[in-house]
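Thread amino acids onto this structure.
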């Protein structure tokens, strides 16, 4: 079975309604501001995997929420009721005193690098950029070898700042990350393994998806694929195709991917951004045009459509809107309006799945950005493709 039907809902029969979508974007914006507390920011939802009352980081914390609110405010042509620069400074200081996880960590999503990237975006400063550089460099050999905690996530900061500043130091830092990842991948191949091993949460496993595994790592490298030597480019692009052939499961015009490799029968099939076809599509957004890869991406998007919206509700990480970004990116890649129509169909369904969370990756701020992209025909996955 390419997807678990019990993890999905039947798509509601509702045509694209621009007025309704705009109304919900404004509701999310207003509700998020109404629930803001100047000291606690946004209280962590009881269903979040939160260790403290209020979080500060990008994934499910205040920095991600403020970053998204800023984007939504520009779309709505509305002012924010707080000084975003001062607020980000406060959030950063608070994070250092009371980190979301037990310790202060570099992590893009759950650590200091993500917060500092937002801080630098709102108020660019060399001292902030120097600190980001130091943290990214310190995280290169992180044993998790995946995007949430390790170098494949924090190296995105080097990519963003290279594009922003054009400073050569960021290109060199990016390539130091790439060199480490390629070295570790070749070490695995020398042992007869196919993909990187994640050493995480007290377990060692080889994940495949965008959230913790192979394709999430590849996404980071592909961000600046043109910086790589010809030999490294050829190696990585060929390796992606080899892995796709090994870990994909195909049925007719649909394709999905193992959650781990080698497969473990006790792990059920997932079809969400962090594990499964949706994250494979978004992870390969920068893969050069290739007949085999393009065919796989089309089949991957087809299984997302046939599976339907996720019963978990809205969440860029593991929800309906995160899956919808695969459609938006295929629309950009192919020009086929079918994918935009499907993205908008998922958007209309997602309007019924609001969860009241103010977060970027697990709540309604991610949904608001997805709805805006459905209107504007955008395709940048938040905080990954652009900031």
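Threaded sequence (387 positions):
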């Amino acid at each position: 079975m390419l997807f678990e039907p019990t993890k999905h809902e039947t798509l509601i029969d509702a045509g694209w309604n621009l007025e309704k979508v705009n109304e919900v974007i404004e509701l999310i914006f207003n509700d998020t501001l109404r629930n803001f507390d100047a000291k606690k920011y946004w209280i962590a939802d009881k269903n979040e995997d939160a260790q403290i009352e209020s979080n500060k980081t990008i994934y499910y914390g205040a920095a991600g929420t403020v970053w998204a609110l800023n984007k939504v405010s520009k779309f709505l042509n509305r002012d924010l009721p707080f000084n975003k620069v001062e607020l980000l400074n406060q959030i950063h200081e608070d994070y250092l005193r009371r980190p979301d996880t037990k310790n202060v960590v570099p992590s893009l999503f759950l650590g200091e690098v993500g917060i500092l990237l937002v801080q630098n975006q709102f108020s660019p400063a060399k001292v902030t950029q120097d600190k980001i550089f130091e943290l990214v460099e310190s995280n290169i050999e992180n044993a998790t070898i995946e995007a949430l905690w390790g170098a494949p996530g924090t190296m995105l900061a080097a990519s963003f700042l290279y594009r922003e500043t054009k400073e050569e130091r960021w290109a060199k830092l990016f390539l130091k990350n790439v060199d480490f990842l390629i070295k570790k991948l070749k070490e695995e191949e020398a042992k007869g393994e196919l993909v990187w091993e994640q050493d995480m949460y007290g377990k060692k496993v080889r994940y495949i998806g965008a959230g913790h595994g192979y394709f999430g790592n590849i996404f980071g490298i592909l961000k600046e694929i043109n910086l790589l030597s010809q030999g490294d480019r050829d190696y990585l692009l060929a390796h992606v195709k080899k892995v796709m052939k090994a870990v994909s499961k195909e049925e007719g015009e649909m394709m999905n991917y193992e959650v781990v490799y080698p497969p473990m029968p006790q792990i059920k099939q997932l079809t969400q951004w962090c594990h499964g076809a949706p994250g494979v599509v978004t992870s390969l957004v920068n893969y050069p045009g290739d007949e085999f890869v393009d065919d796989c991406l089309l089949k991957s998007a087809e299984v997302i459509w046939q599976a339907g919206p996720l019963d978990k509700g809205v969440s860029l990480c593991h929800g309906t809107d995160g899956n919808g970004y695969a459609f938006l990116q295929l629309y950009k890649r192919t020009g086929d309006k079918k994918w935009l129509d499907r993205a908008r169909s998922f958007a209309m369904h997602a309007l019924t799945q609001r969860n009241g969370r103010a977060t970027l990756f697990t709540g309604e701020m991610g949904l608001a950005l997805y709805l805006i992209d459905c209107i504007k025909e955008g395709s940048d996955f938040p905080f990954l493709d652009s900031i």
